[in-house]
Amino acid sequence: MLGQGNFQPHGRGDRMAAEGAPPFFAESIVFLAATCVAVPIAKRLGLGSVVGYLAAGAAIGPHGLQLLGSGEDVLHVAELGVVLLLFVIGLELDPQKLWRMKRDIFGLGTAQVILTGASLFAVARFVGMPFSTALVAGFGLALSSTAFALQILQERAQLSSPYGQRAFGILLLQDIAIVPLLAMVAILAPGEGPSTTGEILNEILIVLGAVAAVILTGRYLISPIFLFLAASRAREVMLTAALLVALGSAGIMHSVGLSMALGAFLAGVLLAESSFRHTLEADIEPFRSLLMGLFFVAVGMSLDVSLVIKHWIVVAAGVTVVMGLKGVFLWALSRGTGSSNSDAMRIAVTLPQGGEFAFVLFTAAVSNSLLTYQTANLLNAIVILTMLLTPLACLGLDRLAARAKAKGIENPSIETFEEAAPTVLVIGFGRFGMVVAQILTSEGLEITAIDNRPDRIDYARKQGYKVYYGDATRADVLAAAGAGNAALVAMCIENDKVMAKAIDLIRDGFPEALIFCRATDRAHVLDLTRRGVDFQIRETFESSVVFGRAALEALGTPLDRIDQIEEDVRGRDEERLAVQLEKGMYAGADRLHKVTPRKEVVKDQQDVPAA
């Protein structure tokens, strides 16, 4: 259990409430102030933002400065952050990629939960816990924190690395495992007998029906609805729909006893191939970040420091055993299933903590008289302290790796980022953008394309291209679409003002990317040149040159003369652009009307026939 009592402010909060302040107004100020102080300090110390949130919660909670009451009520709202986090993670995994992870999810993940849970159960029995209590404690502590570990992986930009993907597979299985563990609590409850076969089958059918409802809705209804909403060009409606999809799928799963986070993840996976993937991710990200921070603050508020001090030997031993056993099993299982020693070590120091689902399991166990209130609070304290120590373990491994590198004994597998081919972000997927994409993909390059016109997206997808709905004037959408990882951004849109704003955003946020632009006319070329883009071309210039060449050829002009004319026209055009940059749009007109001089072909003397 995370604490008792109502979430009420103390001191000035009561006076503010009496004077007609909005609900939770004083609490919000306290939350924000504590976060603004603690998180930057934690980040400066290299501990990560999660430790800052936990420390802020511990400081302002009922066991710290007592600025706020229990964090239990806050946690119910903040758990939506975990739901949105899993939805965003699901958006980054298409069903094919998820299927490729099946060995890590069902093999490595299942082995970790069973072996770690059984070992911790044995330890609990050894120290004298009753059978049922030991079983709940052992398997509850075997679960790691999805929210905590994914936050660390995202902050370190390592979620897409090989070890990050394996860690995520383990976490996903643990989210699934909470369902049978909660069923286990109900079965072990005193006075509760096992359900009849008919009741069990009925529960299974309800669960399967809920899963099918989420799958069918995500597969066949969501994309057409978003296409309809996108045509309205109302961003707030798209945002509302994004939250509705994430929370609605979570609610369906919760209604049948499954994890809300698991339901949101499933909906995200089904939308991973949708045209609206990147816009959904960008819209939800601010809510996810804020609620995740609130979640960790609420967890920190539940840490009873006096209880930890009073039973410090028990708590210290519990933290050591949990992190030690989980770390050993994670390392051994990862090594045994193909990970390098470096990757196995990183998995071991990323996932040794207890998880938020342990709170759920221990609360259910208290309600069913399997755990006493004090035992549950001690177990919660162990979970929270393992969360606090995990960033320190990651930091320690980083320093060991840095020392090894300095001594010249660097492990070649210490870098765990995937080697990726250059990627290109294509913005605008009309006729021009489609031809550009065809050329790039012909070389085997990976492209991501975004457009803000649903009709174009629908047409491009019918042609076999993956094009996503997105607004190029939003930095968050550009980031979600992969501008930060793109070697080149191809600006193929027609609107000059939109392109100018997008160029500024890319220059500010993603300065390493090359910017290639389609220019609508000569004035646009001059503007792009002043902005310092890496390459620009007028959309009609090259086609006009080809058209003119074909006309000359049809009129009987020799091919060598046509080549001379093309070279001269291109040269005079570049000269004119240079003059226009200096003197204005109407300068250099004299270069338009010159006749290309003929180049005489000088033959060797030996080729001249004798008189």
TrEMBL record:
Its membrane topology: Multi-pass membrane protein
UniProt cross-references to Gene3D superfamilies, sorted A to Z: 1.20.1530.20, NAD(P)-binding Rossmann-like Domain (3.40.50.720)
SUPFAM superfamilies hit by this protein: NAD(P)-binding Rossmann-fold domains
GO biological process: potassium ion transport; proton transmembrane transport
Protein's UniProt keywords contain Membrane: yes
Subcellular location, record wording: Endomembrane system
Signal peptide as annotated in the record: none
UniProt GO MF annotations: antiporter activity; monoatomic cation transmembrane transporter activity
Pfam families the record matches: Na_H_Exchanger, TrkA_N
One GO cellular component term noted in the UniProt record for this chain: endomembrane system
NCBIfam families in the record: 2a37 (TIGR00932)
Record-given protein name: RCK N-terminal domain-containing protein
Source organism (scientific name): Effrenium voratum
